[in-house]
Structures are given as C-alpha cells and as structure tokens.
Amino acid sequence: MAEEKVGFFKRLVNGLTKTRDSIVAGIDSIFSGYSNIDDDFYEEIEEILVMGDIGINTTTKIIDHLKERVAEEHITDPAECKQLLIESIKKQMDVGDTAYEFENRKSVVLVIGVNGVGKTTSVGKLAGILKDQGKKVVLAAADTFRAAAGEHRAGVDIIGGQNGADPASIVYDAVAAAKARNADVLICDTAGRLHNKKNLMEELHKIYRILEKEYPEAYLETLVVLDGTTGQNALQQARQFAEVANVTGIILTKLDGTAKGGIAVAIQSELDIPVKYIGVGESIHDLQKFDADQFVNALFHTSEENA
Ligand code: GDP
C-alpha cells in the first residue's frame, strides 16, 4: 500500500513537470533574485501565479495572505517567504472535506463534459479503479457508442445504444441492467454539448427524472470533466455546467500536458466545487484522487514523506 502511494506521488510529481518548470522555476528565481521584500517582489510573484492560470482572484488572495504572514512574522529575507507562499496556496485550495461517498454506496455517477476533454477516458479509468476495489460496475455509454477507450476492462458491463440513440433511454436501460446485476456503481457517460444549453438542460433533467423514478435508492454524484490544458476556459465551462446541473465534483484532466496546472488551484478556490480527481497521464493510475496538500507538495516538490 505504502509503495503504491509513493508511486502515486511520483506520478503526480512527474505529471506536474510542465507546471513546475514554469511556475516554480519562476518563483525560485524571484526568491533568489531579490534581497528585499518590496512591491516589485510581490508583483513578480503575482505575475507568475497569474501566468500559471491560478487566476487573478485567487492570486490576489494568496498574495494578501502572504503579506499578512510576512508582517506578522517580521520576515525580511525573501528566501524565507517560500514556505509561507506554499502555505498560502494550500490555504486557498482548502474547500473542506471532499466526499467520496459514492464509492461506498449503491450509486450512480453521472459524468458530463464537452467533447475532447477526456470524459470517455476518465470514465474508463474510474470504472477500472472501482473494479479494482472489488466493486461491480455498470457503464452507460450514453454519449456515443464509444466504449470507454483503452481502459475497457473485463468485468465492467457496458450498456450502449446505437449512435444517435436518446441518452436518457440508454440510462433507462442501464439502470435496469444495474439493478438486475446488483451493481454497486452505475457510471453514466453522458453528453455535454454546451453550445446548446437548453437541449443539454432538458437532456440532463430527463436523465435525473429517470434516476429518481427508477433508481431512487441510488446515491447520486454528478461530475464535470474539464480539460486542464484549456486553463481559464475550463473554469468558465465549470460555471456553465453548474448552472444546469447539481455538480458535486470535478475531474480535471491532462494536467501532465500543461504548464498551467495552476488552474487546479483556481477551480478549487473560486468555484466552491471540489476537484475530486485529476488526470496526470494516460494510464489508469494517472487518474488520482485530488488532495490539495499533496498537489502543492508535488508541485513544489517539497515533501515526499507523507505521500
Ligand atoms: P472525450 O471526447 O471527452 O470523451 O475525450 P477522450 O476521453 O476521448 O479523450 C481525448 C484525448 O485526451 C485522448 O487522446 C485521451 O487519451 C486524452 N487524455 C484524457 N485524459 C488525459 C490525461 O489525464 N492526460 C493526457 N496526457 N491525456 C489525456
């Protein structure tokens, strides 16, 4: 178990390489390049955080908190600020306890997201992770008839329809299958075409109604998948989905492919919706539960002890 966890931390560290190279390298050069803590010093940190897509609001909060701590602790040496900055970022990411209730109950996980964000891949990975925990998983391929790419594993039943089939009717069939097979988790890979909000809303409501009526005993989780490489657009998408669905968590993918992994900080801090999983690579082990502390440690690569 410990070995597996270290493996996870290493994967996280590796997955965040691009972000580390941009944000952390920049910050380190500020800490070593300044001899005084002055406005220029703070401005440069601010600039790097914003460039890393942490976002202006979150950055402002981080810098304000940092200034407070510097004053309180009478710090004059910039090098001594680094740990405070790390703590300040962690503090902004704290959204309280993140629940993974659905893993332990009979549940339905509705996954929504626009095309290309990594939804199908994430659904496949999630199914695989749950299956490895000994859970019986049924998958509703209600988006298209693409079976969960690559991670298509024995023991995960996939209920699909023909291309163009009504997603709600696929969910209906999948609920019947989940009940008949006494499944622990039913994962629904649903559509998410944001360009037509009204249709999306209607489609989701239809699905919610079916679940309420046919499967009221199931605990409902709604996860939005966002592509980390799209930075602030991902944040925008999350806001739009939150307007039409009761979003209970985020899956943030492709953090390995971007220097703007700071978006994880922005999403966690600004949306008040927990990031529950992050994708840091292509393999099944690269979909990880998100832990703010561990994320920032991996980003700054400060501590492996508790990984
Ligand atoms: P969908 O259209 O949202 O269902 O997207 P797909 O699941 O088909 O994924 C689109 C592409 O993103 C595929 O090539 C995936 O392999 C890739 N992808 C998904 N998640 C990750 C990730 O965390 N890291 C990387 N590097 N690629 C990913």
Note the total helix count.
Answer: 11
Low-confidence stretches: 147-151
What is the typical, i.e. mean, pLDDT? 87
Q: Please compute the radius of gyration using only Cα atoms.
A: 21 Å
Strand content: 5-15%
How do the SSEs run, as a string of H and E? HHHHHEHEEHEHEHEHEEH
Largest β sheet strand count, sense and barrel closure: 8 strands, mixed
Helix content: 40-55%
Describe the strand arrangement of the main beta sheet, using strand numbers.
3-2-4-1-5-6-7-8
| Spatial gap, N to C terminus | 11 Å
Shape verdict: elongated
Which cofactors or ions or other ligands sit in this model? Answer: guanosine-5'-diphosphate
Question: Class by helix and strand content?
Answer: alpha/beta
Number of strands: 8
Provide an overview of this structure.
With 307 residues, this protein is an alpha/beta fold. 49% of the residues lie in helices and 14% in strands. It has eleven helices and eight strands. The protein has helices spanning 2-15, 17-33, 39-51, 56-72, 81-93, 119-132, 167-180, 197-214, 232-244, 263-271, 292-300, and strands at 107-112, 137-141, 156-159, 185-189, 219-227, 249-253, 275-279, 287-289. The chain has an eight-stranded mixed β-sheet with strand order 3-2-4-1-5-6-7-8, sandwiched between helices. Helix 2 runs antiparallel to helix 3 (39-51), helix 5 packs across helix 10 and helix 7 (167-180) runs parallel beside helix 8. Residues 147-151 have low confidence and may be disordered.
